[in-house]
Design goal:
Layout lengths: L11 H23 L11 H13 L1 H12 L2 H10 L11 H19 L17 H9 L1
């Protein structure tokens, strides 16, 4: 990676420290543009863009708060680490991972709230992104 600063008097170590401090902000911008689609506004007037893009960024807040208050489970992380080698070094959840977990939970809640499940009683519904199906098929 190449860092090309306009300030030629700053030491390399300080430039790298500044860049690393800004990195989480860059990741948030990237996720807002590509995952939340804040950069996909189909309007081109100045006022519309000034409203749409910040709203797209603000939609990340409830997802992150939900994940940290209710969606995160250390048991799930431990289970993922046994199945996937890349989880041994992963230290923080990604925004797309949080959003996927929320969508999984929301789809089960929508199913259970519909009339289609009136005959389901006393069941534990496991929401694990299909990992349980893989274990069941492997055990057969």
């Amino acid at each position: 990676m190449t860092i090309s600063p306009t300030d030629t008097t700053t030491a390399a170590a300080e430039l790298i420290a500044r860049y690393s401090a800004r990195w989480p902000i860059e990741v948030a911008f990237f996720d807002a543009k590509h995952v939340t689609c804040a950069g996909e506004a189909r309007n081109r007037t100045r006022l519309a863009v000034e409203r749409t893009v910040p709203f797209g960024m603000l939609t990340q807040i409830p997802v992150i708060l939900w994940y940290h208050l209710a969606g995160h489970s250390p048991a799930v992380v431990a289970e993922h680490r046994t199945r996937a080698r890349w989880y041994t070094t992963k230290t923080h959840p990604s925004y797309p991972g949080m959003l996927t977990k929320l969508r999984e939970i929301a789809s089960v809640v929508a199913l259970l709230a519909s009339g289609a499940t009136s005959c389901i009683t006393g069941q534990v519904v496991v929401v694990d992104g299909g990992a349980g199906v893989g274990r069941v098929l492997h055990d057969l």
